[in-house]
Structures are given as C-alpha cells and as structure tokens.
C-alpha cells in the first residue's frame, strides 16, 4: 500500500497536474505545488511572496544545482525521503565503484537543503552519508572517493558535521591513505588536515586506553590463577564422586575460564579460587586447646592441673 501511494505521488509530480510552481534546472522543469514546497522552505516562501506581482512568479531558478540533486530535493519535499541518483559528469572510475557518485550526491543534497533552509532534509542527508561511509569504511572504493568528497564539501561550504564525518573516515584509514598519497589532493585545505590530525590523536588515545584496560584484565586473571591451591587442581583426578552427594553420576567435571569446576551432570560448581590451603596441624598438640580431645574428662591438663 505504501509503495503504491509513493508511486502515485511521483506520478503526480511528473505529470505536473494542478501545479502552480516549477523549478527550472538547466533544460528540465520540475512541476510542484506551492502549498507543499513553500511550507517546508522559508526561502521559497519568502521568494514567492516577494514575487507575486511579477509575471514569472511561478518559476524558481535552480541552475546552480545538478538535475539529480533537484530531483532528490523534490522527492524529499513530497515523500519525506529521497533515493540518491548519479550526478551528471560523475560517472566515476572503476576504482571508485558506486561509492563516489553516492557520496557526492548526499553532499549535494545537504547543500540544497542548506540553501533553501529545509531543516528536515539536513539530518537525513547526513545520516545517509554516515551510513554510506560506515558501510564502505574498509574499502579502497571509499578511500579513492574521499578526496573528491572533501573538496566538494569544502567548496560548497557544508556544515562542520559533514567535514567532521569525512575527516574521521580519513583518520581511521590514515595508513592506507598515506600510502596511496591521497592527501596530496587536499593539501590546500589546512583546516581539514587539522581535523584529521585531531581524530588521529583521539584514535591513538583510545587505543592506548583499551590496551591498558586489557593489560589490567590479564594481570587480574594471572593473580587469580596464582591464588588457586595446587592441590585443588588435582581434584578432578583424585575425586571419584562429586561434592554434591545427591548427584549419582560418576565424577564428570570441566574447568571454566572463571576458575570454576562444574559437574556436567548436576551443574554444581566449586570456585577453585576460594579454596583455602589447609594448615598442617598435629591432632593433639597442634590444635587449639578448645578443640583438643578430652583427656580424663577434662581439657584442664594431662594430670588434672588447675
């Protein structure tokens, strides 16, 4: 049902039925409706109101954009979403694959949203750009497309968050990008290179923190292992039945990484790290006076002393 409604809307746009406004881009006209587009763009709204008395008040020039960008813009105004299309003159090389045209397309959509102050399009275009970068983060296609995307974002003066996304992507792939000498293509954008440096420093700090945390975990595991009495490790060999007297199975246990001994039958467990080493003691002289065996009915002394 939703697909049929979407198709119906697109068909209405293409037919120009009931249209009272058109966007003109190069040699193509997009027939739209004022009550749809002007309510979403303060720029379009003010432009139409100022030009009401003019004979060409029903035409908005968009010659500064590519046709696919305007098409995505109109599609979003009517449906709340857009499908990225290849920009003119951006066929891309085989190395770029499909990443470059998509990458540049989302940046262009961000540009047109900013130009006409369609705030609702700002977040979706950024989200699509971020999703595309994350999807191809480790691919050579993205790395080879990044310089063109960076230069475009710098040229059209997109908001800082777009440049931040691109600089973070470069920082994550800094080794490969340096090997391919891709940064030489954007050496004249010093503020972007500074952003890459900041992200690289942040990544290095995070790796250092994660390494320290892992080393601490390994140290704690080593300390835990050293507290296990040696005799406890002989328990599986020397015991023919489990500590749970209700378990009738022959002794059948396994060790866990947490130093627990678990019966595969009844699932009873024993924490080996908590087993204390027995202290050697004599059955009589080595034991506390209160626990010595009674002699002649008293613990007062072997000869009944006071």
TrEMBL record:
Residues of the BTB domain: 19-86
Pfam families: BTB (PF00651)
Superkingdom, taxonomy of origin: Eukaryota
Xref: InterPro entries: BTB/POZ_dom, SKP1/BTB/POZ_sf
Matches recorded under PANTHER family: BTB DOMAIN-CONTAINING PROTEIN-RELATED, BTB_POZ DOMAIN PROTEIN
Protein name (Swiss-Prot/TrEMBL): BTB domain-containing protein
UniProt organism field: Akanthomyces muscarius (Entomopathogenic fungus)
